[in-house]
From TrEMBL:
Claim: NADP is one of the keywords in the record: no
Enzyme Commission numbers on file: 2.7.13.3
Keywords of this entry: ATP-binding, Kinase, Membrane, Nucleotide-binding, Phosphoprotein, Transferase, Transmembrane, Transmembrane helix, Two-component regulatory system
Pfam short name (any one): HisKA_3
Protein's UniProt name: histidine kinase
Entries under InterPro entries matching the protein: HATPase_C_sf, Sensor_HK_TwoCompSys, Sig_transdc_His_kin_sub3_dim/P
UniProt GO MF annotations: kinase activity
Enzyme class of the recorded protein, top EC level: transferase
Superkingdom per UniProt: Bacteria
TM regions (residue ranges): 15-34, 100-116, 128-145, 151-172
N-terminal signal peptide: none
Residues of the Signal transduction histidine kinase subgroup 3 dimerisation and phosphoacceptor domain: 195-260
Swiss-Prot/TrEMBL catalytic activity: ATP + protein L-histidine = ADP + protein N-phospho-L-histidine
Length: 396
């Protein structure tokens, strides 16, 4: 029952295709037999068994083309009266009409199944054993017919042209299809990794920044005068919860990101109707409203597209690693700097996030340089971007 289920066609198209293949094969087999009107008995004796072989070959050929090839072995190119070409070899052989690549009406079908055998082959041992058997049949036919050297030439060309060459073409086609499928899977996997990296970046830029500001607000509320001990305790628990959430977010981002995958190089996405110049002041305004001591220095000229990403990363790191510190933000057309002083309370966030790594790759893609270093007990994040037409000194 299992083998019968494997013989079932997957759709109507396969049924129609195999039916047409069977009809064509039966018609060509009938053309090879005796005249059904003059010799009905001879026609039935020769053609009906061949029709049975053809039926079995078409039934199993889609699933097991090598089995179909062996079923059609009696219908192979074993008559050397007609060939693809006739060569005059009187200088070498007594006979002058040597048939090169003998052909029969069934030869195209055999060639097709030999091609399918190579295309779908997963192991070479079964095909090698089958070709050895086919070669033995060819040798036996030549010996029975007298062993003439011209017959040997015809038989060898028949084996090469009808069986070997189509099989090798099928193997080549199968490997090309496999390589194409592997390439497609690799491209899809890379696309998934890039999407995961994009999601990780968005989570880091948005949720990480908001959680850091929540922790700053809670820290400021915890130190506010006039609060009851229960309220101070609640503010402290809120600050610790925000810090724990930031740490869990960092772990999730680490799972989404892949160490072997480069950080996304696309610029920071922003609404089309919102100009870049409004993003940095909004970020600074939100941070100041949360309780950060922050100053902003905007130079004249257009802001770089990466300014918002740099400022957001600097403010988030200052909020997590230097709570209570004074922060100075300066933005010019070719330099963005975020500098914070020493922390006034113990940081609760761990080091080792991926924010600076991702930002560094984005800056490198723009031809700029990123510097992140301790400075005066605090920390400085600076991004320098080349001027228009200026060559990148680092070869980014």
């Amino acid at each position: 029952m299992r083998y019968l289920r494997q013989l079932r066609r997957a759709n109507r198209r396969q049924v129609v295709y195999d039916l047409l293949l069977w009809i064509g094969l039966c018609v060509f087999i009938a053309a090879m037999g005796a005249d059904p009107f003059r010799d009905p008995a001879g026609f039935a004796l020769m053609t009906l068994p061949r029709w049975g072989l053809a039926t079995a070959a078409v039934l199993v050929g889609r699933r097991w083309p090598l089995a179909a090839l062996m079923l059609l072995l009696p219908l192979g190119p074993w008559k050397f009266s007609e060939g693809f070409a006739t060569v005059d070899l009187t200088w070498l052989l007594p006979r002058h009409d040597v048939k090169i690549l003998p052909l029969l009406p069934t030869s195209p079908f055999i060639i097709w199944y030999a091609y399918l055998t190579g295309r779908r082959a997963t192991r070479t041992a079964p095909a090698l054993m089958a070709f050895c058997l086919i070669t033995l049949v060819g040798v036996a036919v030549v010996v029975v017919m007298g062993g003439d050297l011209a017959l040997w030439v015809s038989m060898v060309t028949a084996l090469i042209g009808t069986y070997l060459v189509p099989y090798l073409l099928g193997v080549l086609r199968g490997r090309l299809l496999h390589q194409r499928a592997q390439t497609r899977l690799s491209v899809e996997a890379q696309a998934r990794l890039r999407e995961r990296a994009r999601i990780a970046r968005d989570m880091h830029d948005s949720l990480g920044h908001d959680l850091a500001l929540i922790a700053v607000r809670a820290g400021g509320l915890e130190l506010a005068p006039g609060l009851a001990p229960a309220q101070v305790k609640a503010a402290g628990e809120l600050r610790e919860a925000a810090s724990d959430a930031t740490e869990r977010l960092r772990q999730i981002i680490g799972l989404l990101r892949d160490d072997a995958e480069a950080a996304p190089l696309a610029p920071l996405e922003k609404p089309a109707e919102e100009p870049v110049e409004e993003l940095v002041p909004d970020l600074v305004r939100r941070a100041a409203a949360s309780g950060m001591a922050i100053t902003l220095d905007l130079a004249g000229g257009p802001m770089p597209e990466l300014a918002a990403a740099v400022v957001q990363e600097g403010l988030t790191n200052a909020a997590k690693h230097a709570p209570g510190a004074e922060v100075a933000v300066s933005v010019s057309p070719h330099l963005v700097r975020v500098r914070n002083g020493p922390p006034r309370s113990r940081p609760t966030a761990r080091r080792g996030g991926l924010g600076l790594t991702s930002l560094r790759e984005r800056v490198r893609a723009e031809g700029g340089t990123l510097t992140a270093r301790p400075l005066g007990g605090g920390f400085e994040l600076a991004v320098t971007l080349p001027r228009e037409g200026e060559e990148d000194p680092r070869g980014s």
